[in-house]
Amino acid sequence: MTRPRTTAPLFILLDANVIFEAHRQGIWQPLLQKVRIAVPSIIARDEALFVEIGKTTLPLNLREDIDSGRLEELSAEASEMRGVQRVFDRAFVDGLHEGELEALAITRRSEEEILFCSADQMAIQALAMMDHADRGLSFEALLRKAGLWRKMERHFTEAFFRGHIEKGRTKRIKGEGIRK
């Protein structure tokens, strides 16, 4: 199946929290049209099934977007996910969701230039702790690059993202959260 042309040379791997926010903001389909988007298989199949918009819970149908070619589904082997888990000590790794572990494993092994977009502080720090800070992108930065920027909650901002990249780098230098 042929993918529609994108207007930006970005390949982005999304965390569930960003998928939810894109739906809440009403920009999910425009984002898919402007940027090459992928989602970890665990998030597509187990985590991003419903979204709360106001007081309403709505089903998400990522499978339809995947089947149509508007969204890519990527997966990591169990051994790759264990490899990510082995980087961190038990207390830190317990703060990461399965979908985030898979995203980190995909980002870690990818030879293609893919950027992981998350608003979860632990996932952002983990990226820096793995020495892959350059493979991450805030939701705010993604929307700016796609021409879809809007005001958003703090944890989706570039300042939040950069702050947690710096915390992750500091932890890496100090050996905090890293398995010894």
Detail the topology: elements first, then pairings:
Layout: E1 11-14, H1 16-24, H2 28-34, E2 36-40, H3 41-47, E3 50-53, E4 56-59, H4 62-68, E5 72-74, H5 78-87, H6 90-93, H7 98-109, E6 115-117, H8 121-129, E7 136-137, H9 139-146, H10 158-174
Helix pairs in contact: 3-7, 5-7, 8-10
What ranges have pLDDT less than 50 throughout 5 or more consecutive residues? 1-8
Q: Any guess at the CATH architecture?
A: 3-Layer(aba) Sandwich
Give the CATH class.
Alpha Beta
Tally of structural domains: 1
CATH topology: Rossmann fold
What class, by secondary structure content?
alpha/beta
Q: Which oligomeric form is depicted? A: single chain
- N-to-C order of helices and strands: EHHEHEEHEHHHEHEHH
Strand order of the largest sheet: 5-2-1-6-7
**What share of residues is helical?**
40-55%
Identify the overall geometry.
globular
End-to-end gap = 46 Å
Rg calc: 16 Å
Beta-strand residue percentage: 5-15%
Query: What's the total number of strands?
Result: 7
CATH superfamily: 5'-nuclease
Please describe the biggest sheet, giving its number of strands, its sense, and whether it closes into a barrel: 5 strands, parallel
The mean pLDDT is: 90
What's the helix count?
Answer: 10
